[in-house]
Design brief:
There is one protein chain. With 96 residues, the protein is an alpha+beta fold. Helix content is 27%, strand content 36%. The protein has a four-stranded antiparallel β-sheet with strand order 1-2-6-3. Strands 4-5 form a two-stranded antiparallel ribbon. A hairpin with a 2-residue loop joins β4 and β5. The longest helix is centred in the middle third of the chain and has 12 residues. The chain is globular, with a radius of gyration of 15 Å.
Length: 96
């Protein structure tokens, strides 16, 4: 098995992520592009000592951006929406 720090890259803090955390006990994190749901679940449970009920993944495609005359792209990434089991709680800002 891979190191959990290679699978889970960083948490994502957006308005939608905050709303999901408060209402539905779901967390959104950026994960490695080649990680599957089973690896994500095991890595998250090992890192944060919580029980995971479900993992949903989203591949985010790069978008075109312009800087003057030149054209570039944002980077592609993979996000995971992790649903914690009932009674479990995790807050990235306050700590584990």
């Amino acid at each position: 098995m891979r190191d959990p720090h290679e699978v889970i890259l960083r948490p994502i803090f957006t308005e939608k992520a905050t709303y999901l955390k408060e209402t539905e006990n779901k967390l959104i994190v950026e994960v490695s592009r080649d990680a599957n749901k089973i690896e994500i679940k095991k890595a998250f449970e090992e890192l944060f000592n919580v029980k995971v009920e479900k993992v949903a993944t989203i591949n985010v495609k790069p978008k075109k951006k312009r800087w003057g005359r030149s054209v570039g792209r944002t980077r592609a990434m993979k996000k995971a929406i992790i649903t914690l089991k009932k009674g479990e709680k995790l807050d990235f800002i306050e700590g584990v």
